[in-house]
Design goal:
The chain has 294 residues and is an alpha/beta fold. It has 2 domains: 12-176, 3-Layer(aba) Sandwich (Rossmann fold), CATH 3.40.50.2300; 181-281, Arc Repressor Mutant, subunit A, CATH 1.10.10.10. Helix content is 33%, strand content 19%. The protein has 9 helices and 16 strands. It has helices spanning 15-18, 66-75, 88-96, 114-124, 138-146, 159-176, 208-219, 227-235, 245-258; strands spanning 30-31, 34-35, 58-62, 81-85, 102-106, 108-109, 112-113, 129-133, 151-154, 181-184, 188-191, 196-199, 202-204, 265-268, 272-275, 280-281. A hairpin with a 2-residue loop joins strand 1 and strand 2 (34-35). The radius of gyration is 24 Å and the shape is elongated. The N and C termini lie far apart (50 Å). The relative contact order is 0.09.
Length: 294
């Protein structure tokens, strides 16, 4: 727990009332493993940053409430470097000068609305954005989401819930960054969008299961998957429900259809299968690769 400050599990809007904080209590606060930059609560231009290590990804926290920014920075300190601002102008300046992994923006900011920040960032970037607000009306949530927010969290909220929302948004973002085409150009090419596979110029007709098994291996090149893992990822099943021999038989059929391109699929004896690919095509696409059930 931070000296003279409430537990980070407290409800965020209640931080000020639950904490014995004076006007300058947040100067030189040392967190375990990190430091929040020297800040005076009366200096609204200060940004809050948890500087554990420069290699940590940055989360921008835009909120007029200093205590909330401090609590969020402390909550995320082991995984992110938090930087903050309390006004529309300073928020946009902070965003332009950094490359954040995620943005948290409150609807109420000095000099305007957090929606202005949301719209401006979304016009120029696909960075994940979570909007926070004391306004829990459905129409406010719908408006923020339609303007480009990835999630909307109404106050009061527990910091543990906010962390879970952050994790969920980042998982979705990571999944959406999968390339639409995988493989070796002019040899083996897997088109995730059209569900087509080509060996050279020739299309190879695969069943849904065969395609999904190949695409799953290709999306994780050189990673070994056991039969049990493939059952879960491709069949959405488990080894206690379905025999591992099912994977073996489908792999045999897939290799037969691929012909010489089947050399990319390696059997790691005693462990499972992996796919060795020489390249990934179109890596900047935002289409998500999703396994399909049979």
């Amino acid at each position: 727990m931070i000296p003279n400050q409430c537990s980070v599990t407290c409800v965020v809007p209640a931080i000020a009332s639950n904490c014995a904080a004076g006007s300058a209590i947040f100067q030189d606060i040392h967190f375990p493993g990190g430091l929040v930059e020297t800040t005076n609560a009366s200096d609204s231009s200060s940004a809050i940053g948890a500087t554990i290590g420069r290699e940590l990804p940055v989360v921008l926290v835009f909120d007029t409430d200093l205590e909330s920014r401090i609590a969020i920075a402390h909550s995320l300190r082991t995984r992110f470097r938090s930087q903050g601002a309390d006004s529309v102008e300073r928020a946009l300046s902070q965003w332009r000068s950094s490359r954040p992994a995620l943005v948290l923006v409150d609807l109420v900011l000095e000099g305007g609305s957090g929606l202005e920040v949301l719209v401006e960032i979304r016009r120029n970037s696909q960075v994940p954005i979570i909007v926070t607000a004391t306004d829990d009306r459905p129409e406010s949530c719908v408006l923020a989401l339609r303007l480009g927010a990835d999630d909307y969290v109404a106050r009061p909220y527990e910091l543990s819930v906010l962390e879970a929302r952050i994790d969920a948004v980042l998982r979705r973002t990571a999944a959406q960054s999968q390339p639409t085409k995988l493989g070796c150009p002019d040899h083996l090419e897997i088109d995730v969008e059209s569900h087509q596979v080509f060996v050279g110029a020739d299309e190879v007709r695969l069943t849904r299961i065969e395609f999904n098994m190949l695409a799953h291996l290709a999306a994780n090149p050189r990673q070994v998957f056991t039969r049990e893992q493939l059952l879960e990822a491709v069949w959405l099943s488990r080894s206690d429900w379905q025999a591992g021999a099912t994977v073996t038989e489908h792999m045999r059929r897939l290799r037969t259809k691929l012909g010489t391109a089947a050399d990319h699929i390696k059997t790691v004896y005693g462990r499972g299968y992996r796919l060795d690919l020489c390249a990934q095509v179109n890596p900047n696409s935002n289409t998500r690769l999703q396994p399909l059930a049979s």
